[in-house]
Amino acid sequence: MATATAEARNVPAVTADGHKHKKNALSDGQGRLAWMLLAPTLLVIIAVAGIPVLMSIRESFFQTNAGVDPNTGLIQGGETFVGLKNFTDIFRGANPVEGTWGSMDRFWNAFLNTTMITIVCVLLETVLGVIMALIMAKAFRGRGVVRAGILVPWAIPTIVSALMWKLIFDSSGVMNRILGREILWLADTGASFWAIVIADVWKTAPFIGLLTLAGLQTIPAEVYEAAKVDGASTWQQFQRITLPMVRPTLVVAVLFRTLDTLRMFDLPYGMIGPGKYHVETLSIFAYQEATQSRYGPAAAYAIILFIYVLLIAFLFVRLLGADVIGDSAPPKTKKKRRGKDDQAQTAEVPALEAMGGAH
Amino acid sequence: MSTTSAPAETTPLTNQAEIDALAHPKRSPKYLVGLIASYVGMALIVLYCIIPFYWMVVSSLRQPSEGQSTEFIPSPISVENFKAVFSPQNNFGRSLINSLIVAGTTTILTLLFGIIAAYALARLRFTGKGAVLWIIMACSMFPLIILIPPLLKMFSSTEPFTWFPYWVNTYQAVILPSLSFGLPLAVWNLTAFFKQLPNELEQAAMVDGCTPGVAFRKVILPLAAPGVFTTAIIVFIGAWNEFLVALTFLQAPEKQTATVAISKFTGTSGFDTPYGTIMAAGVIVTVPLLIAVLLFQRRIVAGLTAGGVK
């Protein structure tokens, strides 16, 4: 220990002595080293995420000039500052379209589509995922095979799965053959919405199942034995033991799925196509605007989506106590207060695993 | 966490006969029903996951003229679609190489930055750690679409960015935005792995005279190798599957990544969507990932059980 202390004085030491101690000689020099090690990552994040987001905010206050300049007769270039016009325009209803939810402005149609797809998909995925996890937890053998099978939907690129489902949902495809009906799934109808939901649930429910299984496996068997001795029924065990103990894992998994579904792009784009109002999400709408050089409105819609995502994340952390950053955070009194069923360790791994499924 | 299930499986071995004797009379019909139900349930899960993928494989093995056939087994089996995928007009071979370059570079850069950052987050005490974690977290949450309008404007050198080099159809135009989701993912994943390694390992190395840097390189990094490998696979799959950024910035056929190329397939035969060719391309893009995932499955188990002192 003496050597370590000596080193700590000379070089900022990496002795990494414990989280339990308060300030001491061993850890005092670590701050500078830590920031040195973090600097490259933080700089990259600022460069590839921070600055573009700021640029997007700036962009949302401008509109690209279009048309011919009446004075010079030349095609106008450049951009004009328009203040909040890009944001207030969404309330003008200048661009009504006909979607699943009736006739409304294209922005609100996309907003509603995004919201409804997210709610329906995440609900179904969670229920299916938990059922899958319960089945897998009961299994004695063959869990490896199931786990491998479950990773198939996850590994398939979303755009490939979109095209795969496009073939399945083709009007003369296998889905209609099985159902014995002639549903026009891909023709931008109400059925298109459900086609998207089915394809998304297929791809992501197994993943929630996998994460939930990881949470289930941390529950000690003794707890169930004790419950059995006390005469608890299977349903009571599920309700009183399984759900509360798997909750931290599940909340984080659901949060990440929600955020991921809110920014859905590949699936409707590949399966139904761009500019199909029954399934147009905010991401697709913003993309369409950006590729038509309408950068200002595109940035405005993207920012609204960003704020929406932040709001949902905030609600999850506040109301459901999603422990997104695990036990790595410095112990804050606020966090401790609701950390009654604090499963810091179990919540942490799903957080990163859930991110793995995010793209 | 990983150890919780292990003792339950290993300890009964000590008196197996006794346990069997005790357990046997309890094997009531109810137990059998439960056993069968769990196998049926597992079979259903596997079928649920596999059947749509099976449909993709089957459809890729039909003759090109039968792209939309609904027969469950292709007859005759044909590899024409796979040949069509690599016909010169599709540029698919080139797009696979592009995908490899983009995803590979993203993965390597991500690991380079991520490993040292994760080590700091897992091991060092410093003020502001919570803030850093939240920044990285927030970075993984924001929708990728928010990067598109300003970057598209910038990379295509339009009006206020005329000073910026024309980056449309370049690899860096896709790699840089990909870092914005790859890096948080890697840092997060690696931090968890470094944390699982006990502090005593480095302390022992330093008592033996290693500097912190050497202790990290010679002790921690080899032990965290499974974690680094797992992270690399997850990031690689994420970058390989990325579509939105690549679709926006890679418009020239010879620069497109595989995901973009598939979405723009016109096939060899006229106006119909060439489903057979698309499915064949999908299979080609997916199978390497599936193989990697099966390996990754073993790796993650290894990563969790590799604990040195634990």
Q: What does this entry look like structurally?
A:
The complex is a heterodimer of chains A (359) and B (310). Chain A has 359 residues and is mainly alpha-helical. Chain A is built from 16 helices and four strands. Chain A has helices at residues 2-10, 25-28, 30-59, 85-88, 106-138, 143-155, 158-168, 174-179, 190-216, 221-229, 234-262, 266-271, 282-291, 295-319, 333-337, 344-356; strands at 62-64, 79-81, 96-99, 102-105. In chain A, strands 1-2 form a two-stranded antiparallel sheet. In chain A, a hairpin with a 2-residue loop joins strand 3 and strand 4. Chain B has helices at residues 5-10, 16-23, 29-60, 80-85, 92-123, 129-141, 148-155, 172-196, 199-207, 212-223, 225-241, 244-249, 258-263, 275-305. In chain B, helix 8 (172-196) packs antiparallel against helix 11, helix 9 (199-207) packs across helix 10 and helix 11 (225-241) runs antiparallel to helix 14. With 310 residues, chain B is mostly helical. Chain B is 68% helix and 0% strand. Chain B is flat, with a radius of gyration of 25 Å. The interface between A and B is large, with 124 and 116 residues.
Summarize the structure.
The complex is a heterodimer of chains A (359) and B (310). With 359 residues, chain A is mostly helical.
Tags for this entry?
A: 359 residues, two-stranded antiparallel sheet, 65% helix, disordered C terminus, B: 310 residues, mainly alpha, 14 helices
> What order do the SSEs of chain A take from the amino end to the carboxyl end, as H and E?
HHHEEHEEHHHHHHHHHHHH
How much helix, percentage-wise, in residues of chain B?
A: 55-70%
Distance between the termini of chain B: 12 Å
Q: How many E-type strands of chain B?
A: 0
Rounded mean pLDDT score of chain B: 82
Report the order of strands and helices of chain B. HHHHHHHHHHHHHH
SSE blueprint and pairings:
The complex is a heterodimer of chains A (359) and B (310).
Chain A: H1 2-10, H2 25-28, H3 30-59, E1 62-64, E2 79-81, H4 85-88, E3 96-99, E4 102-105, H5 106-138, H6 143-155, H7 158-168, H8 174-179, H9 190-216, H10 221-229, H11 234-262, H12 266-271, H13 282-291, H14 295-319, H15 333-337, H16 344-356
Chain B: H1 5-10, H2 16-23, H3 29-60, H4 80-85, H5 92-123, H6 129-141, H7 148-155, H8 172-196, H9 199-207, H10 212-223, H11 225-241, H12 244-249, H13 258-263, H14 275-305
